[in-house]
Amino acid sequence: MIVATRAKLIAAGRRAFASKGYADTAMEDLTADAELTRGALYHHFGGKKGLLAAVIAQIDAETSQRLKDILEQAPTLWEGFVEENVAWVKLALEAEVRRIVLLDGPAVLGDQARWANQSTCLADTQHTIERLVEQAIVKPIDPEAAAYLVNGAALNASLWIATSNDPDAASVKAIAGLRALLTGLRLDA
């Protein structure tokens, strides 16, 4: 029952936040769509802000799996690393990610660099860079520093795309810049 109630509220939140945005979503919209009471929303999430955090966590889990699949299915670790980062930037073009994660999330929950999921993302990036250094594919750079720089570049590129008047044009520029930046890490560059 608890899992089902949480799932209904998250699904209702995801639909409402994606279509109306956080600010224009009333608590009554969320509870009516989920056929639950305000009390259920407060009990499970502490309110609308907690529900937004849960929706973002769900979207993040889904996108993280998509990105891991790109890394694992690539012909080489280097290609996987590059394409995983490019795919992360391209997520800014997806309406749901753009509105909920990149626009409303930081406005309501604060700086994305401080979100819990960022530490996992940083750790994954650092691990990949460690492997690339060990395989002599990238320059002998500090993997922790490189992970912060790569993730910061990708995050800021995504925020630029999300807030751009022309997200498609910004995406093309951001991806070209990111590819150049990553190529600069290569030992043979």
UniProtKB/TrEMBL annotation:
<feature type="DNA-binding region" description="H-T-H motif">
    <location>
        <begin position="26"/>
        <end position="45"/>
    </location>
</feature>
<keyword id="KW-0238">DNA-binding</keyword>
<dbReference type="GO" id="GO:0003677">
    <property type="term" value="F:DNA binding"/>
</dbReference>
<keyword id="KW-0804">Transcription</keyword>
<dbReference type="Pfam" id="PF00440">
    <property type="entry name" value="TetR_N"/>
</dbReference>
<protein>
    <submittedName>
        <fullName>TetR/AcrR family transcriptional regulator</fullName>
    </submittedName>
</protein>
<dbReference type="InterPro" id="IPR049484">
    <property type="entry name" value="Rv0078-like_C"/>
</dbReference>
<dbReference type="InterPro" id="IPR001647">
    <property type="entry name" value="HTH_TetR"/>
</dbReference>
<dbReference type="InterPro" id="IPR009057">
    <property type="entry name" value="Homeodomain-like_sf"/>
</dbReference>
<feature type="domain" description="HTH tetR-type">
    <location>
        <begin position="3"/>
        <end position="63"/>
    </location>
</feature>
<dbReference type="Pfam" id="PF21351">
    <property type="entry name" value="TetR_C_41"/>
</dbReference>
<keyword id="KW-0805">Transcription regulation</keyword>
